[in-house]
Amino acid sequence: MKIFPSNPWHKVAVGAGTPNVVNGIIEIPQNTRAKYELDKDSGLLMMDRVLYSAMYYPANYGFIPQTYCDDGDPLDIVVLSQIDIVPMCIVSAKVIGVMRMLDGGEADDKIIAVAENDMSVNHMNDIADLPPHFTKELKNFFEDYKKLEHKTVEVEEFQDAATAKKIILQSIEDYKELMAKNS
To answer: Which residues take part in binding Mg(2+) 2 (predicted)?
Structure first.
């Protein structure tokens, strides 16, 4: 894997407050059907596809820099905010939980966070603070958005902030191991 100097996966810090507050790099703003994804080699954002389903991302979606997971990607993050956050924006994100899921049988955790500088959501500190209907919407979106592609996604459960923070710390260690192998 080539590492380019401008690649945000490698060049943006995970965040000084890690694991409580991390930098989230937004790839996909909420309320869109476009599936944008970081091109790992160039560091640019590419349009992967338009969602096959008539569904819209219910929250801002992206990744945590300098992390690595079993699926070969940086750790995913869902950032709640009252606004649609533009792609490639770095957001200071307070971690409140994690949605454990399997995508095509492969573990694909989604860290749940709130935009630290958005007063409408930053009072939330744990997954239990989310409105119950929102967790149902989030679960429904991720279970259904790939159905028309004939792909299976299974949301296992939502877990608390403490579990999410452990996953973040492990993904940072996994990233360091990956970089050591590639150096």
So the answer is: 76
